[in-house]
Amino acid sequence: MKNRAMRIYFDHNATTPVDPAVAEAVSRVMTDTFGNASSVHHFGQQAKGVLDEARSALAALIAAEPSEIVFTSGGTESDNFALRGVAEALEPTGRRHLIASSIEHEAVLVTLRALARRGWRTTLLSVDQSGIVKPEALAEAMTDDTAIVSVMHANNEIGTIQPVTELARLAHGRGAVFHTDAVQSIGKIPVDVRALGVDLLSLSAHKFNGPKGVGALWIKRGARVTSVMTGGKHERSRRAGTENVAGIAGLGVAAQLAVRKIAPESARLGSLRNRLEESILAKVPGTAINGAREPRVPNTTNISFEAVEAESLLIALDLEGVAVSTGSACSSGTLEPSHVLRAMGLPSPRTQNSIRMSLGAGNTEAEVDFVVSRLPGLVEKLRSLTGARVRA
Ligand code: PLP
After folding, report:
1. Ligand 1: which residue has its CA nearest to atom 9?
2. CATH 3.40.640.10 residue spans of the chain
3. Please, which residues have CB within 8 angstroms of residue 297's CB and are 6 or more apart in sequence?
4. Region 8-17+262-386: CATH code
5. Ligand 1: which atom is nearest the Cα of residue 107?
6. Burial (Cβ within 10 Å: 0-12, 13-18, ≥19) of residue 53
7. Which residues are registered as beta bridge partners of 101?
8. Most buried of 30, 239, 262, 373 (most Cβ within 10 A)?
């Protein structure tokens, strides 16, 4: 077993390490600011001050008004809140149709299925091998009873950026509400909610060096959304439950850091990712990039290795101290082929021989070069075990 210091983490789309400044804020607030933010006394007001500060920091990151932000327990809750909340709010209008893309995260796809069981008609937009939703596909799928369209900003498995501005414009043209799951774009590329033109946007702190179990749903002022978490009057009566003050403080610090770091980090990670990608394509025969290369978030690559079982390669790399993924964290550990690669129409060997590498703060050129130096040998060994022949 190698010691931890030698380990290389290329799985930042699953989760990111907490920035030391975030950890410090969480720990300080947890010990010093234990008040309930709803209490009128000093302790409560101190906690409310922490929430206000974090709300402003997050609003600055996405160019929103602080009052439009509702803190949640993370991306999954925000997606549920957006879809279930709008569905309930719009049920009296008679609109009963929901559209999402077929490459959404399970937090959206499984919620859609739950709404389908409640009588909602649902449509999944297919994508081609680019992994990008075509606006024409949305235009064709919409009807007069379409209530909600939900298309993610950046895909978690292949990193492709969806044409959200255009899709939102189309949805609005038919009177539908537009939600985007921006869990994988926040902190990686600039996000401006007004420029995107969406009504609701989900985000999660642990994907940009914040703590796990905390996130937010941005709700455009005036958008009709019914609370899903009912109870007290927290978060302007939009999400009941005593706020996770320490976690939210951590989210606020992560947002502040992201504002400062996004431009230099996205340039740095983009060139590291390209170096990794180009070197693998050049040095390992039978490799190909999955999905369009642009537009993509700068940290992500998804590569297929012909005649190699992805899980075996993942384990071989882990034994070398390198952490990668075979898809979304939720589905790894099962041998299920990626629903994203399948939805893109990739043939079945390719949906099962693909590896995602997602870079982040702390990754270096030396780490990229180490991985590139190990991969050809590992792949050759795995292929020789099954007797596979791959043309160079
Ligand atoms: N949406 C996307 C695109 C994701 O990648 C994830 C996390 O993997 C989620 C939603 C869920 O976020 P959370 O882990 O905060 O519940």
Report:
1. 75
2. 20-257
3. 154, 159, 161, 184, 185, 188, 189
4. 3.90.1150.10
5. 10
6. middle
7. 125
8. 239
> What are the residue ranges of CATH 3.90.1150.10 in the chain?
8-17+262-386
- Domain covering 20-257 in this structure, CATH number: 3.40.640.10
Most confident of 46-55, 327-336, 342-351: 46-55
Indicate the SS3 state at residue 225: coil
167 Cα to the center of ligand 1, angstroms:
21
Q: Indicate if 330 belongs to the active site.
A: yes
Q: Which of 330, 361, 388, 390 is catalytic?
A: 330
- Closest ligand 1 atom to the C-alpha of 155? 3
pLDDT in tens, 144-178: 999 999 999 999 999 999 999 999 999 999 999 99
Instruction: Output the DSSP codes for 229-282.
Output: S-SS-HHHHTS-S---HHHHHHHHHHHHHHHHHHHHHHHHHHHHHHHHHHHHHH
